[in-house]
Design brief:
The chain is of the alpha+beta class. The chain has one domain: BirA Bifunctional Protein, domain 2 (2-Layer Sandwich). The protein has seven helices and six strands. The longest helix is centred in the first third of the chain and has 23 residues, at 30-52. InterPro entries: CHP02453, UCP028451.
C-alpha cells in the first residue's frame, strides 16, 4: 500500500476521541481508526524504511495500571524508528495534526552517565552543542525531561550545564494542519526533516555505543 496522505477523517477521529474516550466510542469507530489512522501510518513508515529502518507503530491502548487517568485510548498515533536504546526518529498524528521528532526519550542510569560524560568532554560536548544550535536555528524545538538544578556531581558553572541537565533530549517540529499531511508529499517532508536530525541521532548512538 502506497502512502497517499492522512485523510481529514483521521483528525476528526482524534477530535472526537478527546471528547469521548470510551470503549463504546472506540468500537463504533474502529474501522475509521484502522483505515484513516493505522493503515496510513504503516504506509508512511514503510516508505521511509529504506533509509531509516523499520518503524514500530505503537498500539492505541494506554497502560492505565499505575495512572490516575483511566481513559483507555491514546489521543495520538505514534511510530518510532529505533537506532539505539530509546533513541531514533518519531512521527505522530493527533487532533492538532502531524508532528515529527528525533532524539533519545529515556536513558537508564548507566546510559545517562555515558551521555553526560560525552557532554563534559570538550570535543564531543562542543560537537553536540553545535548540532543542537544548528537545529534550533533551522526551527526545531529542543525539549526533553531535565532536572531543574545541576545534576549531582556537576558544577552549575559548567560551560554546557544546560545540556547536562537533560535526562532525555529531543528535537521536534509540528506540521499542524498543513495541506502536505493529506498528500503523498508528506513522505518527502518527513524524510527531509529526519535527515536534518540525523547528526543528533548519530551523536547519541556513537557516544552511548
Amino acid at each position: 500500500m502506497s502512502f497517499t496522505g492522512f485523510p481529514e477523517a483521521a483528525l476528526d477521529f482524534y477530535d472526537d476521541l478527546e471528547i469521548d474516550n470510551s470503549k463504546v466510542f472506540w468500537e463504533a469507530h474502529r474501522d475509521v481508526y484502522q483505515s484513516s489512522v493505522a493503515a496510513p501510518m504503516v504506509a508512511l513508515t514503510d516508505e521511509l524504511a529504506d533509509e531509516f529502518g523499520p518503524a514500530k507503530v505503537f498500539r492505541p491502548y494506554r497502560d492505565v495500571r499505575f495512572s490516575k487517568d483511566k481513559t483507555p485510548y491514546k489521543t495520538h498515533q505514534g511510530a518510532f524508528v529505533a537506532v539505539g536504546p530509546a533513541t531514533g526518529y518519531y512521527v505522530q498524528i493527533s487532533a492538532p495534526g502531524v508532528r515529527v521528532a528525533a532524539g533519545f526519550y529515556h536513558a537508564d542510569a548507566d546510559t545517562l552517565a555515558a551521555i553526560r560524560r560525552a557532554i563534559d568532554d570538550d570535543l564531543h560536548g562542543a560537537e553536540l552543542e553545535k548540532i543542537v544550535g544548528t537545529l534550533e536555528r533551522k526551527g526545531w524545538e529542543v525539549g526533553g525531561d531535565r532536572v531543574k538544578t545541576s545534576p549531582r556531581g556537576w558544577s552549575a558553572d559548567h560551560p554546557r550545564i544546560d545540556l547536562l541537565r537533560y535526562r532525555s533530549l529531543t528535537v521536534s517540529r509540528d506540521y499542524g494542519f498543513d495541506e502536505v499531511i493529506h498528500s503523498p508529499a508528506l513522505v518527502d517532508r518527513v524524510r527531509k526533516d529526519w535527515r536534518q536530525t540525523r547528526p543528533l541521532v548519530d551523536w547519541l548512538v556513537r557516544r552511548v555505543g
